[in-house]
Amino acid sequence: MAVINPPAWQQAPSYPARNDRLALSGLLTYPGNASDEANPLRIRPGVKPSYQNYQLKVRAAGTPNMTVIVSGGTVFVDQRETGGSGAYICANDGDVTLNVNPAGGAGQYRKDTVVASVYDAEYSGALSQWQLEVIQGPYAASAGATVRGTLPANCVVLADIALAPSQSSVAAANITDVRTYGCAIGGVLPVSSAAVPARPHPGQMFYYTDTDRLMYGTLAGTLSEVQKTPGAWTSWTPTWTTSTGLRLPSYGNAAVNCRYSKTGRDVKFYMDITFGTSTNFGSSPTSADNWVFSLPVAAAVALTPAGTAHIEPGNGQRASMAMAQVNTGAADISLHMSGPRVDGSATVAGVVDSITPFVWGSTMRLVVHGQYEAAS
Question: Where are the domains of the chain?
Answer without folding.
Answer: 17-185, 186-226, 234-373
